[in-house]
Amino acid sequence: MERGMKKSLFSILFLLLAFISRNVAAQEFQFTVNLNYEQLVAQQKTDPQSMSQLQTYMNDFLNNTRWTNDQFNKEEKIKCKLNVNLTRSLAQGNYEGNAQLIVSRPVYNSNYETVLFTYVDKNFTFTYLPSTQLYFNENSYTEELPYILAYYANIALVFDYDSFSKMGGSPYVQKAFNLVNQARNSSPNKRGWDSNGDSKNRYWLIENLMSQQFIPFREGLYKYYRLGLDVASQNPLETRAKVLEFLTTLKEVNQLRPASVVINSFFDAKSDELYKILIEAQPNERAQAYTLLVNLDPTKTQLYQKLSM
After folding, report:
1. Is residue 235 part of a domain?
2. Could you write out the DSSP letters of every residue in 234-291?
3. What pLDDT sits at residue 3?
4. What's the mean pLDDT in 227-233?
5. pLDDT exceeds cutoff 70 at 94
6. How many CB atoms lie within 10 A of CB 189?
7. Where is the signal peptide (predicted)?
8. What are phi and psi of 190, to 5 degrees?
9. Residue 177 belongs to some domain of the structure
10. Mean pLDDT of 132-158
11. Which pLDDT value is given to residue 21?
12. What is the pLDDT of residue 20?
């Protein structure tokens, strides 16, 4: 079982407990949903009780749905944040806004928690009435909100599993892709799901992850985390070597698919971490890193400039 096997990173005892005495009812996620609706209050377009129920629904759906066939102890749960900002309500129960998904995991043998992925969805549009039951069927589009949330859950699984085993998240790439295909055909809010919508929307994120051109990126995640960050306390030289190797891979992928949502999202999450890892490198490594980073992530040039000094 892949998920159980990858947790051997954290201790032999933990691995044994994972196989022998797992709580089969434990779900995969520790999702925290933060709901901001101040703009709706200013427009007198909402009811605080309804917003409280909406937040509870999102928390419960994400945390209490079974997303995989693997079993998780409490300590194994994938930590995620979903920050939702509602900006408009054109009719009762109809909401528009944006959402930020943040996925993280611990680094082996340290107190450090690394951000695996962060993604901003500018097309968070849905209908929710507290009096109406929302249904989810992954094989047939039901309603917008649970479909968006299920998509986020599967994307989180992709990056978590890919960080522990090479291409380990592939089953969840396929699931997210299937959700997009269902929604593209049936959703009333196609801008978030369709290839003709925003170039950084849900369609293009999963298109990147499905593409053969991004296989080196996904394989590189395993090297960056499992073979890089997870050995930092024992072998920081190896960590820096793996990070530089991954940046070289990103350069090659970026040449094929410039300005892709996957690579942009990676740097949104990792720029500070990359700087902190590489500032300790030898001058020749820092120079190599600087050249790669300003090419791949030019908006953070001021931060990376210190690597060239």
Report:
1. yes
2. T-HHHHHHHHHHHHHHHHHHHHHSTT-HHHHHHHHHHHHHHHHHHTTS-HHHHHHHHH
3. 53
4. 96
5. yes
6. 18
7. 1-26
8. -70, -20
9. no
10. 96
11. 34
12. 37
Token pair of 182 as six digits? 């269902």
Give the per-residue pLDDT at 46: 80
Q: Does residue 154 fall inside a structural domain?
A: no
What's the pLDDT band for 76 if we cut at 50, 70, 90?
confident
Q: How far apart are CA 62 and CA 157, in angstroms?
A: 12
* CA–CA separation, 60 and 50 (whole Å): 15
What gap in Å lies between CA 10 and CA 107, rounded to an integer?
Answer: 9
| DSSP calls for the chain | -HHHHHGGGT-HHHHHHHHHS--TT--SEEEEEEEE-HHHHHTT---HHHHHHHHHHHHHHHHHS--SSS---GGGPEEEEEEEEEEEEEETTEEEEEEEEEEEEEPTTSS-EEEEEEEEEEEEEEE--TTS-----TTS---HHHHHHHHHHHHHHHHHHHHHSTTTTHHHHHHHHHHHHHHHHH-S-GGGTSTTS-TTSHHHHHHHHHSGGGHHHHHHHHHHHTTTGGGTTT-HHHHHHHHHHHHHHHHHHHHHSTT-HHHHHHHHHHHHHHHHHHTTS-HHHHHHHHHHHHHH-GGGHHHHGGGG-
Residue 18 has pLDDT above 80, yes or no: no
Average pLDDT value over all residues in the chain? 91
Q: How many domains does the chain have?
A: 1
Share of the chain above pLDDT 70, in %: 92
What range does the domain containing 275 cover? Answer: 214-309
- Mean pLDDT throughout 225-229? 97
Residue 51 within any structural domain of the chain? no
